[in-house]
Design goal:
globular; about 375 residues; Porin; about 20% helix; 14-stranded antiparallel beta barrel
Length: about 375
């Protein structure tokens, strides 16, 4: 009995002390829990895009769609060369120049895909490069009767091609690189560089730079520059042209009209002189059918043929009837599939606001033929 009492006296203080320790531990734990705050779950950040971003995206897309529309409607060779499908234009041309008189010609240009050979290979008519722009009829021409273009690589902004021009007894192998992009809201640019070799003329390079600025829903300002330099050129043979493109509805809503006001200059660096200053306007309109176009191009020139000649004024006018063949040579089953977002605004039926327009945006047109949107 005494032994049992002694054991109780020894254990009870220890149990009491243990209770105190547990209580202190619980208080510490409680204090620790109460004083600790974990990282709160990351609240979903508010969207960084708002109506300002939507408006910017809409304006940029409209500017890009307008540029593509102008290239397609006026037949820009760069656009045609990189088109996704086959496309041909047959031109019946009559030119009159105050110095040279009349000149009549028939020209076939465009490209045909060769899927049986390769999906990357295209047969190109008249100009294997696709980088021409007629700032002056006397400027150096790089046309071939027929050519081949092989697409090596392409992404959203750039493209690399192998080219082979063929013209009777000459060949013109070469390479071509193109880079294009947009900046700000209404600007876009295109840079093209080619290096070629031709029997009889050796190597030469062609550089072209194009800057576009959308001025509104139906007008585009373009500054185009090109320089050719080679073993047989007169230094650098250069051309610069400023163009204002406009698209309008004619008297009939069925057919469309395009106008190009332009001013161009071309010259050489060896010897250094300017050959011609040229201003004019090009009227282009669909007639009778959507694939028929009529062009009238009056121009005024201030030119001299050689460095020592006296500069003089001369009028010129060109008349062209064009048959435009659909790239896939058939009507599209769903012409609205590639609608230009800016087209609705021409008829006054466009979106009421940029927010509405963003939700209604559709891919831009690859080709307006035969159902040209406007």
């Amino acid at each position: 009995m005494r032994i049992l009492l002694l054991m109780l006296l020894v254990l009870v203080p220890g149990l009491a002390a243990g209770d105190d320790l547990v209580g202190e531990g619980e208080e510490l734990a409680d204090e620790a829990v109460e004083g600790w705050q974990g990282d709160l779950p990351a609240s979903p950040s508010p969207s960084e895009e708002n109506w300002v971003d939507d408006s910017h995206a809409y304006a940029t897309e409209q500017a890009d769609a307008l540029t593509q529309w102008m290239d397609d409607y006026f037949g820009d060779p760069n656009y045609e060369l990189e088109a996704a499908e086959s496309f041909l234009r047959l031109d019946f041309i009559t030119d009159w120049d105050q110095d040279d008189g009349n000149n009549n010609q028939i020209r076939l240009r465009g490209k045909l895909q060769l899927p049986k050979v390769s999906r990357r290979l295209n047969l190109v008519f008249n100009d294997e490069s696709g980088d021409e722009f007629d700032a002056d009829p006397d400027a150096r021409k790089l046309d071939d009767n027929v050519g081949l273009v092989y697409e090596v690589a392409e992404d959203k902004r750039s493209r690399f091609d192998l080219t082979m021009g063929l013209n009777w007894n000459r060949v013109r192998p070469g390479v071509r690189y193109r880079f294009q992009d947009t900046f700000a809201e209404f600007y876009s640019y295109r840079l093209t560089q080619r290096v070629q070799w031709e029997n009889g003329e050796g190597f030469y390079a062609t550089s072209q730079a194009e800057l576009n600025r959308a001025l509104g829903e139906n007008s585009l300002l373009r500054w185009n520059n090109r320089a050719v330099y080679g073993e047989e050129t007169r230094g650098a043979e250069w051309v610069s042209r400023l163009s204002l493109f406009e698209r309008r509805r004619g008297g009939s809503k069925k057919y469309k009209t395009g106008i190009n006001y332009f001013a161009g200059v071309n010259g050489f660096t060896d010897p250094r002189y300017i050959k011609n200053y040229r201003v004019g306007v090009l009227f282009r309109r669909q007639i009778y059918r959507k694939f028929l176009f009529l062009e009238v191009e009056p121009a005024y020139n201030y030119r001299k043929e050689n460095e020592d000649d006296k500069r003089h004024f001369a009028w010129s006018i060109g008349l062209t009837l064009q048959v435009a063949l659909e790239r896939d040579l058939a009507r599209k089953k769903n012409p609205g599939r590639h609608k230009d977002p800016a087209d609705d605004n021409i008829s006054g039926n466009g979106p009421a606001s940029p927010e509405d327009a963003v939700s209604q945006r559709q891919p831009t047109a690859d080709s307006p033929y035969p159902d040209l949107p406007l």
